[in-house]
Amino acid sequence: MPVITAPHAFNEGQLYVDLRPIFGRSLFLKCEGFNFAGSIKLKAAVEMVEAAEQDGLLSKDSVLIESSSGNLGVALSMIAASKGYRFLCVTDSRCNLSTRLLMEALGSEVHVIADLDANGGFLGARIDYVRALCASDQRYVWLSQYTNPGNWGAHYRRTAPEIARQFPRLDVLFVGAGTTGTLMGCARYFREWHRPVRIVAVDTVGSVAFGGAPGRRMIPGLGMSMRPPLLDESFVDEVIRVEEADTIRACHRLARRGFLFGGSTGTVVSGAMSWLAEHDERDLTAVAIAPDLGERYLDTIYQSTWLEDLYGDQVLDPKAKTAPEGLTTATRDAEPVPRTPDGRRKP
Ligand SMILES: Cc1ncc(COP(=O)(O)O)c(C=O)c1O
């Protein structure tokens, strides 16, 4: 019986859903939403705050500040409340209402940026805003998830070993990419592992994280409007991009079977199923990471008027299916990278 005194002391790391009954193809979905912050971002938040404490950056007057599309903001709100720090989250108008209310309920201040930056996203504008506040008052401590090594370190030390323990014969791992903290932590860990694991990054169409043209993105979590500073593509074997309409179809297909997941899970599942459909030559052991659950998306992905306004009234029509298995129109960037038996890239 786990008994805790701090909210971040509990984090379920061993729950997987096998998607075979729903999608007809085995994919083990690692559920990262079962903690008091409700998402995978709890791990990065704990790691970054504890590193700042160890480095002597935080005092009782400190105000933590961070740019977040939501989930990191909730995790930091929770940790700040538990440890007695103040926290200011700089987010944007794509942040779900319930996520913003959650942060405020936990005692945080939330500033919402509404102006798009030059890449058609909000990230540049959010970061400029954080920088200006930090310059104005030295009590602000910016953890900077986009550059902080604790962001990927959390997944190197926790997420990837959790997967490795349960799947000693893992063949392929699908990881959604935002800041790329999860992706880089897992990719670095499995590069050093005893057998090769194919690392497939899943991004959203319209994100410029791995290059490509910027475009409209309405679902928070995955995708970036700049190249992620943490990203080192030499650790990534393939990149697939998923249309938001396919994300939505995957989310609703899961929900119809009782699994209410967040948007980025729909993206990763859609991309992974499409990839697996193309690579079904042998029984692959495949794992994908589900970063959060669906309650925060009730007024967006799971609300019919929001869907119809943005994606048209056919978005959930089964006839809108476009790709193998009718799951995704994901585009693939790269051929699998040839590996030596110890997992390194072949020269
Ligand atoms: C729901 C959700 N999915 C995916 C991600 C991306 O994770 P990462 O920043 O580690 O790339 C995030 C990050 O905020 C998220 O909130």
UniProtKB/TrEMBL annotation:
It comes from the Bacteria. InterPro entries: Cys_Synth/Cystath_Beta-Synth, SbnA, TrpB-like_PALP, TrpB-like_PALP_sf. Residues 332-347 have a biased composition (Basic and acidic residues). Residues 22-277 form the Tryptophan synthase beta chain-like PALP domain. Residues 321-347 are annotated as: Disordered. Keywords: Pyridoxal phosphate, Transferase. Its cofactor is pyridoxal 5'-phosphate. Homodimer. PANTHER family: CYSTATHIONINE BETA-SYNTHASE. This is 2,3-diaminopropionate biosynthesis protein SbnA. The gene is sbnA.
